[in-house]
Amino acid sequence: MLLSYPVHRRLSPPRRALAALAATVLAAGALTGCSGEDGPERTVDAFLKGWRSGDLQAVGFIDPTGAKVPAAEVTKELRSLAGELVDSPPQLKRTGEVKVEGDIATARVRLTWPLPGATTWTYENPVRLRHGSDDQWQVIWEPTVVHEKLESGDRLALRREAAPRAGVLDGAGAPLVAPRPVVRVQVNPAGVKDAKALARQLDAAFKAVRPALTPPVDVSDLPERLSEADRGALVEVVTLRDEAYRQIKPRIYDLPGTQFQSDKLFLAPTREFARALLGSVDPAQADDLKAHPDKYARGDLVGHGGLQGRYDDRLRGTPGVTVITERPAPDGTTAPSGVEAFRSEPRAGQPLKTTLDVATQNAADAALRGQARRSALVAVRISDGAVLAAANGPGAAGENLAFTAQVPPGSTFKMVSALGLLDRGAVTPEATVPCPKTFEVDGRSFKNSDNFELGDVPFTTDFAKSCNTAFTSLAPKLGPDGLAQAGRTLGLEAPWDLGTDVFTGKVSANGSATEQAAAAIGQGTTVVSPLAMAGATAAVARGHWEQPRLLLDPAPAKPAPAGAALKPESVTALKTMMRAVVTGGTASALADVPGEPVYGKTGTAEYDNNPAHTHAWFVGWQGDVAFAVFVEQGGSSTTSAVPIAERFLRGLTAR
């Protein structure tokens, strides 16, 4: 168009502007290239697609001298250069316009590599192309296409630096779980002549540790392991806390072939200290590495179970990752070239602050120590709902029964039944409520423990002596769902947000007359956890229900709202009755416990169709501490749960 104007004709200002604009557009086209089907963009995009897929047959390649390079060779070299990142190919994206100067085009490509620990490595790199005589654009292949610091024969390699693991803290902010000294007991097979004798001596020594090691150390297969071990290899026997090792050091230190390696592991103050709640920290296991190869590496510390497992990502932090280049060494291996392509510093984990109290937890653990049956003791501070202790037995039990058991509460639930009856005005502590030996409901006979009877006595006496027949006779006064309503005022069945798993109970409602009678004494379909009952007991002591608290940081997002105030006259009456349980009832063994008055309720709960099969319970409080004790298949509460409660309370006063 511009050439059609006569040369001698003077252009008007608008036409001069159009001419200048056209010239600028033509010049720009010379720099950015054609964006049509045959432009360099199309070739670059095909290259990036083929790089990701591993199929580069649609792309032509030349080296910097102009010699053709087979696509298969480029594919092979891309994999070689990627090195340890080969199984995690980068995301690739062309950025900006392709710049063209003569027959050379330059594109900018953004590479984003996924690295271990959820780290990403992003950078931009140029890709050059040449316009060939066949009117096609070809990629100029060279190692710098992958990264500017790569040379032929190089490969990318990873170096990983674990982040400092954060601790689990108690209510005062002090670490509960911290690096503590341990000793690894090992055996060198070359130094052992009589493997069976060695196993017997080690077994006897391990059994002498107090408190007893749980689970026991099994060395029955040690002779076989020694015979199968590689020459010069050490056979691991067990890792002991330093205090346990020192107990038996004189017995095992000089045994043939034994060797001992000092180390530190993240451990709680004692072996059983809130073990089921806290979980453990161990070197990454095969299952960890297989399930999360992008997260864990051999030698990493990993949380297993409990809070350590649930909050592992928070506690372990983010490992540091360095990408280096390696080059072939004379012996055929690869060696670092000294070039660092990328580095991310490790970011330390964040601590987990709990409400646990060391002295209370130690008292709870000591109370359960030596308990042969599965058991639990959980303690809650009445004034603010803080969970002070969560102990599980026997020993360092793996299941947190204190929070998650779903078992009938037995006669401890008479606390709930009594509250419901008092709220409805159906009974008073002084009212006479007969306690016969048996009471029949729709053909089913209910009886008292050991078939006792009290005759016509005040309701307080029925409660203190745990008379089943009195409560089954009063059950109709609660109505079809009165028991469930009373339970809900004490937090049962509520959706708690504790920051870990918890069962808040399920209370019988709208059952038959027989079911209502059974539910009034904590049987039937009602099931609870020890923590749910401790929370309910704290509510009675406090005068209203508040959700127990375990985690302070990170605080749960949706804790249950506090309950309405309980009727003062009902609470006063119930407290009087729960005190009578200790002063003259089924928990009289606690009457002389030092300190403030103890309140409580015993419970024996049948869990199948055999009346002889019973769990044992005790719930109560002293001062600002409410608690629940549960013993699976514990029989009579007075011979199992109450003695545990006494040891716990005496342990608290002795601190």
Automatic annotation (TrEMBL):
Keywords, alphabetical: Membrane, Signal
Penicillin-binding protein transpeptidase domain sequence ranges: 377-648
Primary site of residence: membrane
Signal peptide: 1-19
UniProt xrefs under Gene3D superfamilies: DD-peptidase/beta-lactamase superfamily (3.40.710.10), Penicillin-binding protein 2a (Domain 2) (3.90.1310.10)
Stored InterPro entries: Beta-lactam/transpept, Beta-lactam/transpept-like, MecA_N, PBP_dimer, PBP_dimer_sf, PCN-bd_Tpept
Cellular compartments annotated: Membrane
Coiled coil: none
Boundaries of every NTF2-like N-terminal transpeptidase domain copy: 40-153
Pfam families associated with the record: MecA_N, PBP_dimer, Transpeptidase
Every Penicillin-binding protein dimerisation domain range: 162-325
Family designation: Belongs to the transpeptidase family.
PANTHER family reported for this sequence: PENICILLIN-BINDING PROTEIN 4B, PEPTIDOGLYCAN D,D-TRANSPEPTIDASE
Name of this protein: Penicillin-binding transpeptidase domain-containing protein
Biological source species: Micromonospora halotolerans
